[in-house]
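re: ur question from yesterday

yeah so i grabbed the chain u mentioned. its 227 aa long if i counted rite. heres the sequnce exactly as i have it in my notes:
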Amino acid sequence: MTPQLTIRSTAARVTAYAWLAFALLNLLDLGVGITGSARYDLTSATVAALLLLGSGIAYVIGLRPAIVADEAGVAVRNPLRDVRVPWRAVKEVTGDTAVSVRFAGPGGAELRTRAWVLQTSPRAQAKAEARARRDAAETGRAAMAAQVRGRTPTAYAAQQITEIGERHRPAAETAKTAKTAKAATDGDGADGDGAETGRVSWSVPAVAALAVPAALVVVLIVVAAVG
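ran it thru and got these structure tokens back, copy pasting raw so excuse formatting
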């Protein structure tokens, strides 16, 4: 599917890439001695493990989080978990302090996920409301001000996602009959009666990016303490 809307944090991605560049240069320095002699001891190994752990954090927090909407549905990638919801399963998309998707889950359960990316503070939300009221008072165009009231980045993103869903929901309705039998058989994105549902799963690469270097750091610290 071709993404029709992809939302990421530019600041977080720039910070993450900056850290990755810093970590790479330091790992090269430890390995080949760019600024001095290369060192192959327990201290260097611990520093390298810490740099890898920091890189894992940069990936999980800075590079992974995103909201992606395409013809089939909307996906919310948070630091450690992935949520994929077909348009037919989406109940509501809201944007207050964060973009939130309410959707039908397995077994008839109603679930809600909040996106890590693109969060707005309550203070920013209040300022947006105040700005809309001020614009209405100054211009007298109350209807226009009402349309943009609370138009924070999260509210605008929720509106965009909702509009994409409304455009593609009819196509999803048409395809339901053809997919029901297969979905009921293999359970892929459907509950027992064939209704489409959202899926929540752990991201194996994200968990590994944190768990592996963290375990290495612990082992090296223990070895250093014992030695």
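noticed a couple things. Residues 142-146 have pLDDT under 50 and may be disordered. also The CA atoms of residues 100 and 136 lie 28 Å apart.
anyway ttyl
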